[in-house]
Design goal:
This protein is 86% helix and 0% strand. With 218 residues, it is mostly helical. The protein has one domain. Helix 3 runs antiparallel to helix 6, helix 4 crosses helix 7 and helix 7 packs across helix 9. InterPro entries: ABC2_memb-like. Keywords: Membrane, Transmembrane, Transmembrane helix. This is ABC-2 transporter permease.
Length: 218
């Protein structure tokens, strides 16, 4: 697995332009906008997406087929992708979170520590959910087909949420109260809950990814 990490970090070194775009966008957002919770989430998701680029490079010109002729198992490959996504996302999340807190203070914008912690926790949940969906899709369908599958999945998700809200309203269920209850949770409880949720999502996603990759032929 060490060799896989070295390969992926080597691929990231060749994406200096992507990193430059992230830095520029972060600076622009921090100086032009006041919604720091959105900024933290957006930049974190962009950093997390880098994991998918390494899979695309592996699949280029049947590179993945060659990779599995080496002493690398499919289980190791899938596990490395999830560990790599965490290793690359967490430092980026930490950097943009600290930067946002410093900039909000320097600009005199109200951004309490509680809101900041909640924004960081929610951002990590979002990137976990997105990667847990995208990694299995890309391993099953490949880079091109996974985009189409993702669009269909997002469409189904949006429709499901919309219908769920309508059903709650028709049934007299106040779904906004549940959201407000989550928002009022203490940071420590929110962090513990999000950690458990992220862990469960990652495990399910990992098992799906492993199954998809074991069934693929190269």
């Amino acid at each position: 697995m060490k060799g896989l990490f070295m390969k992926d970090f080597g691929l990231l070194k060749g994406q200096k332009q992507f990193f430059a775009v992230i830095v520029v966008m972060t600076v622009i957002f921090m100086t032009a906008y006041t919604n720091f919770a959105f900024i933290i989430s957006y930049i974190t998701i962009m950093i997390g997406i880098m994991t998918l680029t390494t899979i695309s490079y592996d699949e280029f010109e049947n590179g993945m087929g060659y990779l599995f002729t080496l002493p690398v198992s499919r289980r190791e490959y899938v596990g490395e992708k999830y560990l790599f996504s965490i290793i690359t996302t967490l430092p980026g999340l930490a950097a943009v979170s600290v930067f946002s807190l410093v900039v909000s203070r320097s600009r005199g914008i109200h951004f309490s520590v509680g809101e900041w912690i909640l924004s960081v926790v929610i951002s990590f949940l979002l990137v976990t959910v997105i990667l847990s969906i995208l990694i299995p899709l890309q391993l099953k369908f490949g880079a091109d087909k996974s985009r189409v599958a993702m669009m269909i999945l997002w469409g189904v998700g949006i429709i499901t949420v919309y219908l769920g809200i309508k059903i709650c309203e028709a049934s007299g269920i106040d779904w906004k109260t549940a959201i407000n209850w989550v928002y009022r949770l203490e940071p420590i409880k929110a962090l513990a809950g999000i950690t458990v949720i992220c862990g469960i999502i990652m495990v399910i996603s990992y098992l799906c990814s492993l199954r998809f990759l074991e069934n693929r032929e190269f």
